[in-house]
Amino acid sequence: MDALPTHAGVVVVGGGILGTSIAFHLGEAGVRDVVLLERDALAGGSSGKPIGGVRGQFSDALNIRLAARSLTAYDRFAQAFGADIGLEKVGYLFLLRTPEHVSSFEAGMALQQELGIPTRLLSPGEAHDRCPFVDPDAFLAAAFSPSDGHAHPTAVATAYARSARRRGARIVTGCAVSDLEVRGGEVVAVHTSHGVVRTSTVVCAAGPWSRGIGEMAGVALDVHPLRRQIAFTEPLATPAPGLPFTIDYDSTFYFHNAADGVLLGMSDQAQAPGFDRDYTDAWLPMLRAAAARCAPELAELRVRDGWAGLYEMTPDANALVGESPEVGRFLYATGFSGHGFCQAPAVGEVVRDLVLGREPFTDISPLRAERFAENAPVLEANIV
Ligand SMILES: Cc1cc2nc3c(=O)[nH]c(=O)nc-3n(C[C@H](O)[C@H](O)[C@H](O)COP(=O)(O)OP(=O)(O)OC[C@H]3O[C@@H](n4cnc5c(N)ncnc54)[C@H](O)[C@@H]3O)c2cc1C
């Protein structure tokens, strides 16, 4: 761990995939006095998820642009950072059961293709050829993009942090932010468990804990934590490498390879908001019932273990990225609601540009935190 300095040009709060990407991109742009504060270990929050999906299949143009740029960054990551991030370009396969879902995905597909994501519609038979576990009689069509896949978020966060450090950033772990000092509408200092850092710029990348960090500065960040679980099956009797990241859009049940077995996941509508991150088997009957509806063989597999983390939800299930209009130089990149890994590389670039007063590669204003008060939500259909 680096020592806490008394002064910093920029303080980034949170050492997950977003905070480390931001610190790296600032360092790469020549900003030398960046300090990243993480109260736990790097990737100790949601970014500790063992495997994360990366996809360009969104319905909103801004989400597609952020994802497309991030997919390119992930494709180049191993070479650029000399780090194995376990990237598997297996594609995402959305199974569609109703004519309404097929039409809405067709509309999204046209936009994705225009923005460089090669999504196409598959028949049930073609989907079954790509993913032998799915029951072709259970759905009408499937959307598939070969440029999607999955990788290891912790490996990415670690590589970003290492490269940020090489470029002069200080990475201070085990150091909790306890207060933000704001004077005359400007951030002037960050108070921590290890002392005070004077600074004029703070970036909140505290994931599910961002509401509390915003409150310290008097900025409303409408983010709430929601537990999400994943389960790992025992090894498959007959290996099935290269399964796409397959999602039953109707139920949100999803699966893909994880080591010799399969990772299973699903949104639990009964889950109440809160910071509980304990894994429990109580959801397995619901998971098995959903599996039985689209991939019956998977419903029978024994579950070896599981992992629980937090989705960082916003009211429209889309990220908050921007700078507060009320508190000078308080910026934020949070509330990704389950797609933070997908968008972290591009958002790191965007936040770098906001800090440096440059024009980002795309207009990020639809993701401003004030949009809820203005009744201007982001309308994204492909949330899982
Ligand atoms: C089960 C599950 C499945 C998911 N699947 C996917 C997926 O397939 N694809 C995808 O793109 N995304 C997925 N996500 C979401 C993704 O993991 C998150 O969007 C992403 O990790 C958020 O990163 P972050 O850096 O914003 O937050 P985090 O990784 O949570 O980092 C925030 C950090 O801030 C630190 N912090 C908090 N308060 C303080 C403080 N006061 N002082 C100092 N540090 C503080 C925390 O310790 C934490 O390390 C999934 C999430 C879960 C739970």
Distance between the termini: 36 Å
Low-confidence stretches: none
Largest sheet: 8 strands, mixed
> What's the mean pLDDT score?
97
The radius of gyration is 21 Å
Oligomer: single chain
Count of β-strands: 19
User: Can you say what the CATH homologous superfamily of the largest domain is?
Assistant: FAD/NAD(P)-binding domain
> What fraction strand?
25-35%
Main features:
binds flavin-adenine dinucleotide, 384 residues, alpha/beta, 9 helices, globular, D-Amino Acid Oxidase, Chain A, domain 2, 8-stranded mixed sheet, 6-stranded mixed sheet, 2 domains, FAD/NAD(P)-binding domain
Topology overview:
Blueprint (H helix, E strand, L loop, with lengths): L9 E4 L3 H12 L5 E5 L13 E3 L6 H21 L10 E5 L2 H16 L5 E3 L1 H7 L10 E5 L3 E3 L1 H14 L3 E4 L3 E7 L2 E7 L2 E4 L3 E3 L5 H8 L6 E10 L11 E4 L5 E5 L2 E5 L18 H11 L1 H4 L3 E11 L6 E4 L6 E5 L5 H17 L28
Bound molecules: flavin-adenine dinucleotide.
